Amino acid sequence: MKHNKNIGRTIVSIGLLGNKIGMTQIFDESGNIIPVTILKVGPCMITQIKTESKDGYNAIQVGYSNTSNKSLTQSELGHLQKSNIQPLKYLKEFRVPNVDDFEVGQVLNVDLLSVDQLVNIKGKTVGKGFSGLQKRHNFTRGPMTHGSKNHRAPGSIGMGTTPGRVLPGKKMAGQLGNKLTTIKKLKVIQLNSEENILIIKGSVPGKPGNLLSITPSN
């Protein structure tokens, strides 16, 4: 597998995949405490290249995390074996303006990022199960005294005769968390290319071990 190092900064636009390790704090040169999140990023591999002439748009598909053949379906295995690539657990597509600098099998790692660079990190938030209106949407509760029986109840959820139904999008009780979200403009504090470790200022979505997508911030 080839790894072309002379492709410039444009390759960073396709992004990288990684896992959250956890949070800690470090001290800068002035002795200030910086809250940071430690990420295990890459190495990722380009598994497919889509072109505007063939697919209607330019994109790069990136694979991450080696796995066994039994963990993938036959179609997933065939897709990777067609390019002579080992089984990978995660695949993600990134749009790019030009695909001339990329090739299938190319390895991408944390070296593509730099210290003090701003990145956007996308991942699933912590799932908190079924939650009521006060916790999920910050509704105020009803009176707790004077015979009130509406403490944490939803109250009216719509009109009766017209329209005679609950309108879509009504804020009600339901699952809290476990949704994709993006934290933008997080600063890269340190990186370790030997261990594929990336240290980001601030917090990122999800629990330790959560799958994350790291892309440069525009």
From TrEMBL:
It is found in: Plastid, Chloroplast. It comes from the Eukaryota. Residues 132-158 are annotated as: Disordered. The keyword Ribonucleoprotein applies. GO terms for biological process: translation. GO terms for molecular function: rRNA binding; structural constituent of ribosome. GO terms for cellular component: chloroplast; cytosolic large ribosomal subunit. SUPFAM superfamilies: Translation proteins. Pfam families: Ribosomal_L3 (PF00297). Keywords: Chloroplast, Plastid, Ribonucleoprotein, Ribosomal protein, RNA-binding, rRNA-binding. The keyword Plastid applies. Belongs to the universal ribosomal protein uL3 family. One of the primary rRNA binding proteins, it binds directly near the 3'-end of the 23S rRNA, where it nucleates assembly of the 50S subunit. Part of the 50S ribosomal subunit. This is Large ribosomal subunit protein uL3c. It comes from Pseudo-nitzschia multiseries (Marine planktonic diatom). The gene is rpl3.
